[in-house]
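Aim 2 progress update. The chain analyzed this quarter is reproduced below.
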Amino acid sequence: MTRPIRVTVWGENRHEKHDESVARIYPDGMHNTIAEGIRENLGTGAVVRTATLDDPEHGLTEEVLAETDVLTWWGHAAHGEVSDEVVERVHRHVLSGMGLVVLHSGHWSKIFVKLMGTSCTLRWRSEEDRELVWTVDPTHPIAQGVPQPIDIPAQEMYGEFFDIPAPDELVFISSFSGGEVFRSGCTFRRGHGRIFYFSPGDQEYPVYHHRDVRRVIANGVAWAATDRAERSAPTLLRYETGEFFRGADYAHAAPEIADARAAAEQA
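Predicted structure tokens:
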């Protein structure tokens, strides 16, 4: 992308307001800590704003989404409070080319479940497990500059079975103190949009202050951004017999198709 990536970091921002233990870890809110990590890693390559559940329209108006290349999403306690109208709006923008980075318990958000088409359920335990995040695709852009493994001293356990469609790419697998494993870094494509799910990040632990977790999220943002000239969803088109060979709506025709189109125009 030739210009800075326009990033909107969306956070539920409820635990930080109501749970003292979370407020001590994230006094400015998890959304601001996540945004800080993206700025720290992408520098002038990104322009980052934040939005929260209690903002008008959850801060995700048509105007905001139209000016967002990549949206990050963290939610947990209030998935049901997210407006269906806003979910439909975000869904339309993802299909039209906006990138989406879903974090931790965002696996059960309305938007992720809608995009996956499955229950997105999993196994969990919050008992300060050590999490090791293992890179299984070291050539993937999201894994660049990331140690093998990422060591998170205390974190909520997420375990299989994780009810998602088979990922387009599996970048990370996590292992936990209790022996569980989890597909913790997965990519998907829906319509023209790219989606990255990354699981570390329970609100009770300082995971979003972790240098390597911040690097992965920033890499995910960079990967999810696309260079499409304009945002539009895939559309259903009917072709008459022979239209393809006349080059109708075919911007990069093979030479024989281009010749046929030129001949048709001269006829």
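The CA atoms of residues 240 and 248 lie 10 Å apart. The chain has a mean pLDDT of 92. These observations will guide the mutagenesis experiments scheduled for the next reporting period.
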